[in-house]
């Protein structure tokens, strides 16, 4: 559902983005990306924490600042350490999106509804 782009960024899937496009101001986009990151983090490879914690989150997405993040994301055949993140694997954005996409969508939808009530 999610993808890791060549600019080291995880974005929500096109269908989810399309669904939310009309109601996402920058504040809501940042909320959505932070929500996605919370679900994504346990699937991210973690040895020293450099890659999985050196992250910028803004309205455009989740940006991994490590120079090797892209290689790790597509690291088919890597033997990811499970010591600190037992769920760690390649394509962690796709995995987290497919497993938690409904929960992420629900949290964002509830956030949008709560903003409209204010």
Main traits of this protein?
118 residues; alpha+beta; elongated; disordered N terminus
Characterize this entry briefly.
The chain has 118 residues and is an alpha+beta fold. It is built from five helices and four strands, in the order ββαααββαα.
In words, what does this structure look like?
- 48% of the residues lie in helices and 11% in strands.
- The chain is of the alpha+beta class and 118 residues long.
- Strands 1-2-4-3 form a four-stranded antiparallel sheet.
- Strand 1 and strand 2 form a beta hairpin.
- Helix 2 crosses helix 5.
- It is elongated.
Blueprint (SSEs and pairs):
Elements: E1 3-4, E2 9-11, H1 14-20, H2 26-40, H3 50-53, E3 55-58, E4 61-64, H4 69-73, H5 92-117
Antiparallel strand pairs: 1-2, 2-4, 3-4
Helix pairs in contact: 2-5
**For the CA atoms, what is the radius of gyration?**
14 Å
What class, by secondary structure content? alpha+beta
State mean pLDDT (0 to 100 scale): 80
Ranges where pLDDT stays below 50 over 5 or more residues in a row are 1-12
- Total of DSSP H or I helical runs spanning 4+ residues: 5
What does the overall shape look like? elongated
Note the main sheet. Answer: 4 strands, antiparallel
The proportion of strand residues reads 5-15%
Order of helices and strands: EEHHHEEHH
User: Strands across the major sheet, in which order?
Assistant: 1-2-4-3
Portion of residues within helices: 40-55%
How many beta strands in the DSSP annotation?
Answer: 4
Distance between the termini: 31 Å
């Amino acid at each position: 559902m999610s993808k890791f782009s060549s600019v080291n960024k995880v974005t929500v899937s096109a269908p989810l983005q399309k669904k939310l496009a009309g109601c996402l101001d920058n504040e809501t986009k940042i909320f959505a990306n932070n929500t996605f990151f919370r679900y994504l983090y346990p699937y991210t490879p973690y040895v020293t924490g450099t890659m999985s914690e050196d992250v910028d989150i803004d309205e455009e997405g989740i940006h991994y600042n490590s120079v090797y993040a892209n290689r790790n994301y597509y690291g088919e055949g890597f033997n990811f350490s499970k010591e600190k993140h037992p769920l760690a694997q390649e394509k962690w954005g796709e995995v987290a999106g497919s497993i938690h996409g409904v929960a992420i969508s629900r949290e964002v939808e509830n956030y949008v509804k709560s903003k409209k009530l204010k």
